[in-house]
Design brief:
Blueprint: H1 20-38, E1 46-49, E2 52-55, E3 90-93, E4 99-102, E5 104-107, E6 110-113, E7 117-120, E8 124-127, E9 130-133, E10 175-181, E11 184-190
């Protein structure tokens, strides 16, 4: 409904304006429309209090619902504050569209924690500079594609400690490294540096 303007005539008491009943009927119609679109009045949820839009019902939601392809635009001057939050947490949206704040961020089976730990799937974990498995006795498979190889970019040396050199290692290795190549297990001899 468009706003209804009360005709007040040209001069005071000239009799050209709306009769009292017609004038107050327009005023009532205008107020009814304001109440309907503002959410004010009995049985409604939204109210304005100072500079706040509040929900008067206990646990009542406030829904911002633009029409068609309209957007909800919040002019925040580059800051948006959530009073209910976890300090220094990551905000994320779940499948229902609810945004929560947590010290862990999960997506597609990957959990990223703010303490430096990332878990991929349910078994592989990255913590700082360490790669480990979360389950006991699980293997870590390094599988390059095609003719690719696994490259370990580690420092090299020409001696194996006081017992010998690279060309004449000690008779007995200090330990053996257990690896698996295409499903076959091997033991690689290893020598202590000192």
């Amino acid at each position: 409904m468009a706003i209804q303007t009360v005709n007040i005539g040209t001069t005071a008491d000239d009799g050209a304006g709306d009769p009292l009943r017609t004038a107050f009927d327009k005023i009532n119609d205008n107020f009814l429309e304001l109440y309907a679109v503002s959410g004010a009045g009995s049985g409604n949820n939204i109210a304005f209090s100072g500079n706040k839009i509040i929900s008067e019902d206990s646990s009542g939601d406030i829904t911002l619902d633009p029409n068609g392809t309209g957007k909800v635009i919040v002019a925040t001057a580059a800051k948006l504050r959530f009073t209910d939050h976890v300090d220094n947490a990551i905000g994320h949206v779940d499948a229902s569209g609810d945004m929560t704040f947590d010290s862990n961020l999960s997506f597609d089976g990957t959990t990223l924690a703010l303490n430096g730990t990332m878990t991929v799937g349910s078994q592989l974990q990255f913590t700082d500079n360490r790669i480990s498995t979360t389950n006991s006795n699980e293997n870590i498979d390094l599988v390059p594609n095609g003719t690719g190889t696994v490259n370990f970019a580690v420092p090299s040396q020409t001696t194996v400690g006081s017992a010998g050199s690279a060309s004449a290692p000690p008779a007995r290795p200090t330990t053996y490294l257990k690896i698996r190549v295409h499903g076959t297990e091997f033991a690689i001899p290893a020598y202590a540096v000192s």
